[in-house]
């Protein structure tokens, strides 16, 4: 089975135009981009995917070992980039996927020319000299919270959506799987995500990168966004007047505007 | 009673009743703006959290959550609320002013302006203290059940390993190859067994048997037969006499399970091995000669553990250089696949094709053919043992 079908990849926009790949974060699925991605269909080839375990991804490809660290998830994104033979692509990653798309960029520097990191954090847990916003105990608490909220999850509700291209209208059956994930898969993903540390990777990511930071984000605080932009050799920070961790949902227009400005500036540089 | 206008408690105007219901409802109410800033909260929630309603109105909903709960809120609760317009039965812990926690279940709805922008988020909070401790017990019980299943499977595997010697002992002057494959996924103790043990210098006993059924009860009978044979063989060496005594033992045992077996006593001679063979309700062994077609020995004998006063007869043959004797259970011949049963003819054909192969190759090839025939899933246990005299090829 190809990475494209395993990750419920959907492609829209102009086939010959430069590609943009949008990757959702921990918790939900590609529909996180429904208020943002369509704006790029006129100018780009727009690609969406579901990370393993999310939305319409095929869980039969799940491997406990592979997905116990973020490398497995990043490798999936890299596979999609290769399978679709994307070149000169802009990768847009939300939350944990901001780090995942950076890992893909390092693996395929020829194919990925720029990155957009929406609400990124390279390290969620505090350490001496670094404030990520959380203590180790808080992560345990999150795992507990996942466990209690998945008590109502039954195996019969495993993601059942398949290749519905009627985007952006979400059918009832599509919304059913949104934010639902097999409890064990979610737990392992959360553990891998919130205990990861990618601070050392940032200085090696040389591609132009836009960092989108919400003014009031409890998961990725402003100081963390500033840290990411500083550490990236070609990072630029844009603050969004938005509360929360998901500006793609709460402030889609401002998010779209910031990304549009960034990708247009890339065009000017390359042409 | 008209049924047209809502009724209200005596002494309260409808407006008072509405206000009273909001403030003192048996659940907490919160209204926030699009960014989660609390616009109003009811008295019930304030009481539960040890705060005043005014205090609450200066906070955000996220501030009421624990740090772990905030991550859940941002990654699941808020996106779902935006996408669906509501969320239901979300488990959270709310922070009380005294640093305690209120386990709660939360429902929320999104109130939108006509243009689709968010006017307010309305949240109902239900005290779930009892439910949460019950859920914890359920989770613990699930973990305990998983651990105990794991232990049971380990026990079954360990038992099985003690019942079936995975590698037969080294017999000087004889090549012994064996294979055992339990039915299905191999998590259950099966009924097939084999044993190879020494009776003295160049004197060996080979046993292969099949206890009907599977699971712990079959395992008890397997162990009984195996160790009875080992004990009896100290003084009784002829297979037919051993089988008679095992039959008696089984009849006296409380289990009503029966058993089939084939016994081969092997004594080394200068140019090969003399084999005395006794069969009890079991398929007779196959004889592979270097210079003859493979045939099944002509041997019969009653099942073990069914009839009183049964007699068995032994058959004696000589295994010369290059000859091989193949013992097997009916997991081979009764294997069924899309083509029907594997059957005796196919068995003879497969084994005969490997007449000049080593015992190891004969055994592996046969297992491969039988598994392929069943599309890789053994429906019954399979045990095969091949005894070959080196040389002659």
Automatic annotation (TrEMBL), chain A:
SUPFAM superfamilies: alpha/beta-Hydrolases. Transmembrane segments: none annotated. GO terms for molecular function: hydrolase activity. The keyword RNA-binding does not apply. It comes from the Bacteria. Residues 21-256 form the AB hydrolase-1 domain. InterPro entries: AB_hydrolase_1 (IPR000073), AB_hydrolase_fold (IPR029058). Keywords: Hydrolase. PANTHER family: ESTERASE-RELATED. Belongs to the AB hydrolase superfamily. This is Alpha/beta hydrolase. It comes from Nocardioides cremeus.
UniProtKB/TrEMBL annotation, chain B:
CDD domains: PAS. The keyword Hydrolase applies. Residues 131-162 form a coiled coil. It comes from the Bacteria. Pfam families: PAS_9 (PF13426), SpoIIE (PF07228). Residues 14-67 form the PAS domain. Residues 176-389 form the PPM-type phosphatase domain. InterPro entries: Bact_Sigma-Reg, PAS, PAS-like_dom_sf, PPM-type-like_dom_sf, PPM-type_phosphatase-like_dom. Keywords: Coiled coil, Hydrolase. The keyword Hydrolase applies. NCBIfam families: sensory_box. PANTHER family: STAGE II SPORULATION PROTEIN E (PTHR43156:SF2), STAGE II SPORULATION PROTEIN E-RELATED (PTHR43156). This is SpoIIE family protein phosphatase.
């Amino acid at each position: 089975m190809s990475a494209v079908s395993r990750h419920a990849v959907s492609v829209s926009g102009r086939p010959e135009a430069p590609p943009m790949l949008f990757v959702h974060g921990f918790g939900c699925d590609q529909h996180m981009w429904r208020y943002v991605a369509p704006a790029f269909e006129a100018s780009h080839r727009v690609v969406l995917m579901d990370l393993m375990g999310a939305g319409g991804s095929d869980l039969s490809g799940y491997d406990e070992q592979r997905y116990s660290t973020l490398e497995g998830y990043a490798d999936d994104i890299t596979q999609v980039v290769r399978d679709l033979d994307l070149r000169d692509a802009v990768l847009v990653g939300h939350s944990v996927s901001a780090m995942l798309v950076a890992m893909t960029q390092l693996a395929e520097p020829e194919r990925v020319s720029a990155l957009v990191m929406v609400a990124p954090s390279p390290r969620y847990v505090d350490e001496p000299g670094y404030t990520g916003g959380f203590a180790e105990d808080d992560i345990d608490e999150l795992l507990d919270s996942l466990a209690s909220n998945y008590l109502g999850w039954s195996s019969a509700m495993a993601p059942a959506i398949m290749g519905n291209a009627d985007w952006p209208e979400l059918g009832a059956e599509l919304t059913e799987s949104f934010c639902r994930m097999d409890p064990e898969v979610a737990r392992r993903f959360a553990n891998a995500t919130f205990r990861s540390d990618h601070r050392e990777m940032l200085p090696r990511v040389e591609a132009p990168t836009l960092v989108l930071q919400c003014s009031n984000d409890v998961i990725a605080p402003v100081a963390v966004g500033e840290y990411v932009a500083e550490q990236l050799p070609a990072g630029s920070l844009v603050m969004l007047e938005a509360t929360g961790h998901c500006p793609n949902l709460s402030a889609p227009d401002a998010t779209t505007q910031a990304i549009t400005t960034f990708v247009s500036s890339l065009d000017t540089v390359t042409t | 009673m008209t049924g047209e206008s809502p009724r209200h408690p005596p002494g309260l105007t409808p407006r008072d009743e509405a206000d009273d219901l909001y403030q003192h409802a048996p659940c907490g109410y919160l209204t926030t703006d699009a960014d989660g800033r609390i616009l109003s909260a009811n008295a019930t929630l304030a009481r539960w959290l040890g705060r005043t309603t005014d205090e609450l109105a200066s906070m955000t909903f996220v501030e009421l959550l624990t740090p772990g709960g905030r991550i859940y809120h941002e990654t699941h609760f808020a996106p779902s609320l935006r996408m669906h317009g509501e969320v239901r039965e979300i488990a959270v812990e709310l922070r009380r002013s005294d640093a305690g926690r209120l386990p709660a279940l939360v429902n929320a709805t999104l109130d939108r302006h006509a243009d689709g922008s968010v006017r307010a988020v309305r949240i109902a909070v239900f005290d779930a203290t009892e439910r949460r401790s019950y859920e914890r017990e359920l989770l613990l019980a699930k973990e305990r059940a998983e651990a105990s299943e794991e232990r049971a499977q380990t026990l079954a595997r360990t038992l099985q390993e003690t019942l079936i010697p995975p590698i037969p002992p080294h017999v000087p002057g004889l090549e012994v190859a064996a294979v055992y494959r339990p039915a299905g996924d191999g998590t259950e103790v099966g009924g097939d067994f084999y044993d190879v043990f020494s009776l003295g210098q160049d004197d060996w006993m080979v046993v292969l048997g099949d206890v009907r059924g599977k699971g712990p009860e079959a395992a008890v009978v397997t162990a009984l037969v195996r160790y009875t044979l080992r004990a009896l063989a100290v003084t009784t060496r002829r297979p037919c006499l051993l089988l008679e005594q095992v039959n008696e033992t089984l009849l006296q045992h409380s289990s009503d399970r029966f058993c089939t077996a084939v016994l081969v006593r092997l004594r080394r001679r200068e140019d090969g091995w003399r084999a005395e063979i006794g069969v009890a309700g079991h398929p007779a062994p196959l004889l592979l000669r270097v210079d003859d077609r493979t045939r099944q020995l002509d041997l019969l004998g009653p099942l073990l553990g069914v009839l009183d006063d049964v007699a068995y007869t032994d058959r004696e043959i000589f295994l010369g250089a290059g000859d091989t004797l193949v013992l097997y259970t009916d997991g081979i011949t009764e294997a069924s696949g899309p083509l029907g049963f594997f059957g005796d003819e196919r068995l003879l054909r497969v084994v005969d094709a490997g007449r000049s192969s080593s015992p190891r190759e004969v055994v592996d090839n046969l297992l491969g053919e039988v598994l392929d025939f069943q599309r890789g899933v053994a429906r019954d246990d399979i045990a095969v043992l091949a005894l070959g005299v080196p040389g002659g090829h």
